[in-house]
Design a protein that fits this description.
By secondary structure, this protein is mainly alpha-helical. The protein has helices at about 5-25, 30-40, 45-65, 65-85, 85-105, 105-125, 125-145, 145-160, 170-185, 190-200, 210-225, 230-250, 250-265, 270-290, 295-305, 310-340, 355-370, 375-400, 410-425, 430-440, 450-455, 460-480, 485-495, 515-530, 540-550, 560-575, 580-585, 585-590, 590-600, 605-620. The longest helix has about 35 residues, at about 310-340. The termini are far apart.
Length: about 625
Amino acid sequence: MSATAEASEALDAAIGEIALALKSGAAADQEGIEVTALKLADSCDNREIRVLAILDAGRFFYVTGRPEVGIRIAEMAKSFALETAQVAATITAYNLIGVCSADSGDLPRAMEAYAEGLNLARRAGDAVQEAKLLGNTGVALNYAGLFRESKACLQKVVALGEVDPDFAVMVRNAYAGIALCCLHLDEIGPGIAAIEKCIALSIEPTDAHSIQNRVLAENYYSRLLIEIGDFDGAWRHARAARQFANKSKSPRAEIQASVAEGLAEAFSGNLDVGLSRLTATLARAQELKLPQREVLVALVKALEYAGRHDEALKYLQEMLAQQRQTAEANVLHHVHQHLLQLHSADADSPIEDVKQIMRRMETHVEVIEGRAAKIELIKQKQELFRARIEAMERLAVAAELRDDSTGEHSYRVGRMACLLAKEAGCDDETIFMIDIAARLHDVGKIGIPDGILLKPGKLNGSERLVMEMHAEIGADVLVKSEIPHIRMAEEIARHHHERWDGTGYPAKIGGREIPLAVRITTLADVYDALTHKRPYKEAWTAEASLSEILSLRGTHFDPELTDLFLALVSRLRREHRDLDHHLGEAARASPFIQARGKIWETLKLAKDEYQQQFQRTMDLQR
């Protein structure tokens, strides 16, 4: 057999192996699939066939629950497609990177991939790829609790689909996603209109994926009808969800149908039956190790409706504990993966754990210290810390987006804090550390439910206690991250709600017992929060905000730092026409923030218009 024939036979075997694994959703040797994909990228012969097979390998790892491997393979497919000038395959690779990143909880990386893919799709005039990318972006934003942005993406998919009947499936799924966004945003009328269009576009599902989507649609419809008191209608659609779930035999579909049935029964008068079903569904989800949040939300809602508040509180606490555990695990996983990628070991060396990587980095710094000038040494150390903290910073900003639609709050706080540190006479290294560490002050919001974080009105006592947990959640995540020199960031996250008079939280420490970096950050954080609109308050003027801070001198804030802060802000306002723009400079350099801007541009939704839309929604909820 000739070399050409042998190569062709090997290519066919590799493609067949990957195709069979993807179709069956299983492979005896999963690592072998990754190795096969790597070998496919070794040659440019039959490049179109090769890149499609590599992408299928990435999809295989996505559907089998190993998105991190899927990302690696999708990145390889992207590089291969770029090297061989395959535009469509490059766009598909960006889409797969986004899907896998979103599935693993890394919203910033997903958004960056989607933004790059959208840019290419628009330049290539590929409306189908554009719609796919926007649809997946909408799903990722929905998972992250950014329902307004998600809804805007999905509405764009609908608009694209109005001119091309081939978009029917994407449009149908987009309407279902819009309905779910509306359910979370308490926009029940538009939600019902969207789900009705979704159902009207539906055909009888035949495969597992389409059946799962139909079960979800019926679930959303049932829950929306409960919100307007149409309990008979809710029960009809819950039964429809059950009928489709029975066809699929999928545990996920079964649980979604059971949630719809349990809620419909509870609100239709069969309270005990509904609660019993929901309790059994929770046990089933726990047994199968499937996500339990939707079941817990349904249980809390049904128990509150029944007036059984103590029982509802028990499940609410369970839900909060799970959300905290999941959020912490997700952040720590991505931070550790980021740190592992920073190591300077040879490609052939064994994979090291995070502590080994830290020791290697410190050794590298010590080598530099032995031969570099002091100024160069400081610069190297700062760049090392900045690199280490990057993943944590991006995930912190993603968490903050739920109540700060610009994503710039943490950057503005960091910049203002470092300027105040300079006024307070801190050394250059401390000033740098405060700038970076202060950006992480609200990282603990990853563990706070949307319903509390986005509540338009005043929090009640129980909600306030949950909200206050974000300080300790953030500090715990930072401690567990194992990032060296993270102590300042941990102290800021834990104590930025302490008060000078000792009446703050969580430790109720006061005076100089509160670390200096914390006292500095607290002033910057409060000023920025006062001068910007949030779900629970209007924006204050700079003058009113400074007056409020002055009134709290010696009670909430360090009196000496307060005097320095008031003089600093007054000077900065004279020097900069747009102080927000000046303080938010670092945010605009963030790849994540830049990616969001590109997606806004794709949606033809200007930042100011989006802000107005955000405010209108808050006003309606209020």
